[in-house]
């Protein structure tokens, strides 16, 4: 194998070790513990809803100006 070979799995493991807090590591190491991924989907949904409303208002405004 080449000497400059970087193992992608090793890089991922090092990154996860860097990012994870000690509490997350303890939960992951507990026997029989199933980790649950919690995402901040609530705030993202709100941003998407507001962006959709703004887009609709802009389209309605452009159509109104075109008809006027």
In words, what does this structure look like?
The protein is mostly helical. It contains three helices and no strands.
Write the layout of secondary structure elements.
Layout: H1 8-19, H2 22-29, H3 41-67
SSE succession: HHH
Assign an overall shape. elongated
What class do helices, strands and sheet pairing give? mainly alpha
Rg estimate, integer Å:
24 Å
Question: What is the average of the pLDDT values?
Answer: 75
Total count of strands: 0
**What composes the largest sheet?**
none
| Proportion of residues in β-strands | under 5%
Number of helices: 3
Please give the share of residues in helix: 55-70%
N- to C-terminal separation?
A: 72 Å
Q: Outline the low-pLDDT stretches.
A: none
In short:
This protein is mostly helical and 68 residues long. The protein is built from 3 helices and no strands. Helices cover 69% and strands 0% of the residues.
Which key features would you list for this structure?
single chain, 68 residues, mainly alpha, 3 helices, elongated
């Amino acid at each position: 194998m080449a000497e400059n070979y970087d193992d992608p799995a090793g890089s991922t493991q090092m990154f996860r070790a860097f990012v994870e807090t000690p509490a997350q590591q303890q939960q992951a190491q507990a026997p029989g513990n199933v980790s649950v991924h919690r995402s901040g989907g609530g705030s993202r949904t709100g941003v998407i809803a507001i962006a959709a409303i703004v887009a609709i208002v802009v389209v309605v405004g452009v159509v109104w100006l075109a008809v006027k």
